[in-house]
Amino acid sequence: MQWEHVATLPDNFISKPLRQLLMQDWFMPKHLIYSLKRGQRVLVNGAYLPVNFSVHAGDLVALRFVPADFQTPFQDIAPDSAATVDVVYEDDGLLVVNKTPGSKTHVNQPDEVGATLDHVAAYLAPHGQQPHMIHRLDQETSGALIVGKDPAVVPILVRLIKEKLIQRTYLTWVHGQLQTDHGTISLPIGRDPEDQRKRTVDGEHPQAAITHYRVIRRTANATLVAVQLQTGRTHQIRVHFADLGHPIVGDPLYATDNQRQRMLLHSWQVKLPLPYTFKTVLVEAPVPDSFTTFEKQTKKS
């Protein structure tokens, strides 16, 4: 098993050492660069090139990875039915799926099945590929979930998320009317000492948490909000809006809805720099019908 990534450097590329391209432009960790160098598996225009030599616009760069380059090149994920997999973007190295509400991103118990990654494993199996988790969404959250298709993209994507170079925008309906059209919530989040499932502002071992939002529209009793996270704490959006007195509609932990329904939190858009390229894509997961249904209901009430 091998994985290859090939790219032609664009016309506006400024000549630089190959090492700089790999580290600074493509965010490759040092240990991967060392492995490619040691195995002479980095080719420029078909020939091995030492990483201190320069590359130029129009050069064809090919990187070939082998299992020994990675601690966990293969994933122990049991394939489940691929019927529910809704792919909104796919290329050779990754895919973005529209996660269904109520499904876990990954299983938590040894004999458990039915998580989103299990379904993606079934989708990829006919092509001899396996899913690699890059990030997660809460079980009740729907929408765009990035999944790696080979281990070479994993450290790149994880770093892009960590350094906020992947921009994710969520949509959510919250109870009540937010008074400002946009704002920033900067409140530390820690564990809730009274409920291990929950997080709370200024809870145990709090960490800085920053949420940016803008109002899309309002109804008499609710507000549709677009949200971007500057930090990525557990339940961050849910906790921040609940603390403001505007919990997310349908939130089973932080809201007290009279009528049970799914939580209206959706990973809507992902602006994603593609690994081993100079391209960026904007991927959008269609807004669920439950958002429109709720808006119609709240307008009638």
TrEMBL record:
Composition bias type Basic and acidic residues, residue spans: 191-205
Catalytic activity: a uridine in RNA = a pseudouridine in RNA
Residues annotated as transmembrane: none
Domain Pseudouridine synthase RsuA/RluA-like: 94-242
GO molecular function ontology, one term from the record: RNA binding
InterPro entries given in the database record: PsdUridine_synth_cat_dom_sf (IPR020103), PsdUridine_synth_RluA-like_CS (IPR006224), PsdUridine_synth_RsuA/RluA (IPR006145), RluA_PseudoU_synthase (IPR050188)
Pfam families assigned to the protein according to its UniProt record, in alphabetical order: PseudoU_synth_2
Domain of life: Bacteria
GO annotation terms (biological process): enzyme-directed rRNA pseudouridine synthesis
Region annotated Disordered, chain positions: 185-205
Similarity remark: Belongs to the pseudouridine synthase RluA family.
Database matches in PANTHER family: MITOCHONDRIAL RNA PSEUDOURIDINE SYNTHASE (PTHR21600), RNA PSEUDOURIDYLATE SYNTHASE DOMAIN-CONTAINING PROTEIN 1 (PTHR21600:SF87)
Protein name: RNA pseudouridylate synthase
Originating species: Secundilactobacillus paracollinoides
